Amino acid sequence: MTNLGVQPLCMESYGSRSAQHYRALPDGRLDCIPEGPQNRGFRSLREIFMAFASSITGTLATQAVLKGVGVGDEASTVTAATVTWILKDGTGMLGRILFAWSKGSKLDCDAKQWRLFADVLNDMAILMEILAPAFPACFTLIVCISGFFKCIVGVAGGATRAALTMHQARRDNMADVSAKDGSQETLVNLAGLFFSLLLIPLVADNLRLTYSLYGLFTALHLYANYRAVRSVCMETLNRARLRLVLRHFLQRGKVLGPALANPQEPLVPGFQQELRMNLGIPLHTVVSRVADFQKALEGNATNHLIFFNRAAGTVSILLHRLAGSVDVIKACTHAFLLEVLLYQDVAMSALEEESLLDLQRRLREDHSEPENKDSTAISETHQLLDKIFPKFLAGLTAAGWVTDRNLLGPDEWRMDWTIPEKKTL
After folding, report:
1. Which of 112, 121, 321, 384 could form a disulfide with 414, with the two C-beta atoms 3.0–4.6 Å apart?
2. What integer pLDDT is reported at residue 258 of this predicted model?
3. pLDDT reading at 4 higher than 60
4. 285 - beta bridge partners?
């Protein structure tokens, strides 16, 4: 039972879902209390059964089609073919669901990376299909894995195409750009179809030529896609572009424009030391005691709360209900500032060199109480951020970056806490 006489410390919600609030327990722990019924009701269950029934009837139809076209013996071959078909399609569906669940929110943020990833994975799937007949004992397994990859390609390719099409629709003419892009692709596929008709008789019984042509055209395909992705110049900030721009700003005192930053954006995951940033997460995942929450609120007049765990290499950021795009950019800048202090050389910095060096020295030195050190680092980087962020934000706007929206990928958790007013001198 909820103690209605206890004033909640803060409120929290996830998108349009029902809210939850936190209260202090007598032993100093935070207690998270959901508000409203958590049962989503009969409607979602009914929709699940509708889709499930449709899938079952689709399977029955598949078996009927196979039987109707005279595939083998009714007792065994049709059943085996149906099972193979179901395994292939089912594996692909599983891949589509898992990939969309785990990476869906990141496709907009790193559209160029995922576009190139989709091209590489598609070529791998094609290679597996070419090699599958050479391994009859593993044919079904290879085809299922290939189908798994192709469904991931479908999700990643389709989603990133939409993101890049939106970027290219400079006159809010997304439908026009999408239609013309589809027409161009159809024309190229048609030309490839005619060329394939001439090529197939030449490679039908020549495996060496087949593999050679695959290698040649795959290399051309990947190079062309790499150049195409690299040529895209996006004015919205994602994590990679913001990280690049901030580091250059600290070193040179100037903000890189989109035309200079985009060619430097990594298109494959790097091996540099980076903090893992969790943006827009719920309070109970990072704080369990009231004292820790109150310490994070002390002197904080921003629309974000940041929790740094150096041992785990993570920065966790909570966003206020009123946080806008600029607030999200500031929160990520705060996290990347900590990253610079931990892993980069700040000597010869154009901005706040003395403060950066002093803070970096104290942040890196050994300390008997790492939690206190991390908390002190957060407090001092808040003060440093207040000095440099106004100039940084003005530089972003002047350089041509869009700041009223971003691709930094925050989750949808938002909190409501009292923000203290800044003291005026």
Report:
1. 321
2. 94
3. no
4. none
Place of tokens 């740094």: 308
Q: Which runs of consecutive H residues, i.e. helices, occur in 309-364?
A: 325-343, 353-364
Question: Tokens 């940033």 — which residue?
Answer: 277
CA–CA gap between residue 365 and residue 14 (Å, rounded): 38
At residue 320's C-alpha, the angle toward residues 318 and 326, to 5°, is: 95
| 248 touches 265 (CB < 8 A) | no
Q: In what order do the strands lie in the sheet with 10-14?
A: 30-34, 20-24, 10-14, 413-416
As a whole number of angstroms, the distance between CA 161 and CA 158 comes to 5
Distance of CA 143 to the CA centre of its chain: 28
User: Which CA distances in Å does 289 have to 6, 273, 306?
Assistant: 16, 30, 15
DSSP 38-106: ----HHHHHHHHHHHHHHHHHHHHHHHHHHHTT-S-TTTHHHHHHHHHHHHHHHHHHHHHHHHHHHGGG
Instruction: Copy the structure tokens of residue 44.
Output: 């979602």
Phi, psi of 200 (to 5 degrees): -60, -45
CA distance 120 to 114: 10
Work out the number of other CB atoms within 10 angstroms of the CB of residue 390.
11
The dihedrals phi and psi of 107, each to the nearest 5 degrees, come to -70, -40
Question: Collapsing DSSP states into helix, strand and coil, what is residue 176?
Answer: helix
Is the distance from CB of 319 to CB of 335 less than 8 angstroms?
Answer: no
CA distance 326 to 411: 16
**In sequence order, what are the beta bridge partners of 269?**
none
Instruction: For the chain, give the longest Cα–Cα distance.
Output: 90
The conformational region for residue 193 under phi > 0 = left, psi -120 to 50 = alpha, else beta, is: alpha
Please check whether residue 268 is in contact with residue 323, taking contact to mean a CB–CB distance below 8 angstroms.
Answer: no
Q: Which residue has the tokens 């104290």?
A: 362
Task: Give SS3 for 344.
Answer: coil
Strands 236-238 and 402-407: parallel
Whole-model pTM: value is 0.77
DSSP 8-state code for residue 29: B
How much is the mean pLDDT over the chain? 79
Quick one: DSSP state of residue 321?
A: T
- 3-state SS class at 424: coil
Q: Which two tokens stand for residue 298?
A: 């002390």
Q: How many CB atoms lie within 10 A of CB 162?
A: 15
List pLDDT tens digits, range 169-206.
Answer: 767 777 777 777 777 778 777 877 777 777 777 777 77
CA dist 385 and 300 (Å) reads 12
